[in-house]
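Need tokens for this chain, all 113 residues.
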Amino acid sequence: MTEPNQGSDADDPTAAAVVARALVAYRALADLGEQVTDEWQYVTDLTAVYSADLDSLAAEFATLRLAPDAIRAIDVAIEEIGLIADPHRAIDWLSTFPQIVRLTLAPAAAPIA
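Here are the structure tokens for all 113 residues:
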């Protein structure tokens, strides 16, 4: 597995590029989860919904340039799911990982006045 900060895509600080890396990692995680045959439909459904959500985020924030800390946060999450070897644990992360990406890209809430 290549390090997330290597290669030309890693040099692109746009949300579209970072989400593209996240999607590659997410789909690998889904492939692992699909090994649990009793959960195949559940995994397929989760993957479809969250892949579409990540695609939508990439389009919405396509040209947004991310701060280094945001890029690193997503790359650390990518590294973490890359360490998962248990298909059942992969299934657990299928709904968690996209939320990490979403929260990292979401604009900060305005303070209450």
